[in-house]
Fold:
Amino acid sequence: MSGSSSSECARIVRVLNGHYGHVSWWPGDTDEVLIGAVLTQQTRWENVVRGLAQLKERSLCSVAALHNADPEEIERAIRCTGFYRVKTRRLKALAGFIMEEYGGLAEMAGYPTDILREGLLRVSGIGEETADSILCYGFLRPSFVIDSYTHQICGCARIPEQTSRLKALFEQVLPPDNETYRQTHAHIVEYAKEYCGKKRCEACILVNSNG
DNA sequence: GACCAGGTCCTTG
DNA sequence: CAAGGACATGGT
Structure:
């Protein structure tokens, strides 16, 4: 019955792909995706959208603008996303890193994925999930995102692993293609939101069925 | 009113 | 290293 972790992982991918097909997820230019990646930490996406709108109204929805902005004005704009003081600090740290280390987003895009990842992880407030979200959805790199939903779904499929091992597992199973990475991660999140956390976790049922 | 949301950091044992 | 707390607003 239960095969290797990689075959279980491949089955999750296949089953969810059959369940959803193509989905459109995490729209926006690179600036917006980077900012959204911080705002969405432990926060519903609808509130992130509001925060991004508030930033746009103040012409603060770009890395360069945030770098020069008054922290209190950032706080006011993103208040609706919660944790607004910490997130302001994190946005400032991220913007400072990009502007001072690379001179801007466009310049940053010329560097290889592993170098960027290493740098992002050194920024205070940027952990693995946020870094990979930035790389995958902002810079369109093949860096698979592991979040709490991925852990939930993999738990359903009896693949309890650490984040780093899950990331390696998915990247080993999937073709190294950004579009595939984005689709797969989106499927996992949508599916977990829809089916996990119920009395009888329906995600477990589908994930363990024959797709 | 309790509980949770597309995490991360800091402090303790 | 694992576990627990802090950060904070908005929706169910």
